[in-house]
Amino acid sequence: MIELPVDDTRPRLSTAVAPVELSIVVVTWNSGRWIKRCLDAIPSACEGLAHEIVIYDNGSADDTVAHLNGDVHLIRSMSNDGFATAVNRAVAESHGRYIFMLNPDCELAPDALTRLHEFLESEPKAAAAVPLLEGDGQREFQLRRLPTFRGLLSEIFAFSKLLPRNRATAHYRYHDLDVTTPQRVEQPAAAALLIRRDVLDEVGPLDERFSPAWFEDVDYCRRLADAEKFVYVVPAAVAKHYGGASLEHLSFERFNELWYRNMWLYARKWFPAGEAEALRWAIIAGTGLRSIAAIIGIAHPEVGRLRGFRAYLKVMGKAFHRWNDSSRSS
What we know:
Blueprint: E1 2-5, E2 20-28, H1 35-45, E3 51-58, E4 72-77, H2 83-92, E5 96-102, E6 106-108, H3 112-122, E7 126-134, H4 138-142, E8 143-144, H5 149-156, H6 159-162, H7 167-172, E9 183-185, E10 187-188, E11 192-196, H8 197-203, H9 216-226, E12 230-241, H10 252-270, H11 273-295, H12 305-320
Parallel strand pairs: 1-4, 2-3, 2-5, 3-4, 7-12
Antiparallel strand pairs: 5-11, 6-12, 7-11, 8-10, 9-12
Helix pairs in contact: 5-11, 10-11, 10-12, 11-12
């Protein structure tokens, strides 16, 4: 195992330096119970492909690092730098023609990466490809269209849960998509995503303002779309996504604070100013309704009435004060 220090000033490496076909980038944060399963599945998933594994550990306090062995390039941070920052730094240390972003709670099926690689090699107009994720709720989680103002309103007011078969939700979540053949999709989750290095170089790194997580992959898919770089789901490639590797280490309060903040950051970056401001007020109204639902025991009984109530009140306050403008986008 090769361990490298974090160096913010390190320049991006050229693929002319000891290139390999594939760089597998895994960001860990207290991922001890997931990472061994993830790494053990890689050899059979990309058999025949010259590859390297670059792991960026975001200051894990558990036994994550103890599970690492073999020819792994490990970059250790003393703190949680966030997903986007970690990916960017790991990519800067990598040498592959292709970059594969892989969550530690994903288990690749045999030949999954080989099939993604074959697809991109045969489709020069495709910029990136993802396997079909399997697991509870993964069909709803993985494949979505890019958010619109109306779509985010639906998320805020939980229309997708209250009316799961409405047309807007069905359209947003690709309910009518044929997943028996490769299909172009706007916004696949980045839990397992293969992308050409030259596309990353052209479009640029992930936006580190979406810290520590959520909406950075949505933002990147929007940037790819604007650059006319297309992403495909390849059903012949499969991965099991267990989900929740990060959520299990975040409190209910902290998750909601980050989720709504980054949603608003996305809106400020991509929506007209009036829509972004309207969305902020929708967040205030929506979390207000959720706080009422929590205190009467309708929403999130697993966290407790008072805790749920306080969590949503906190989001309301943060939204009212525009998160102190700490999420200002350019």
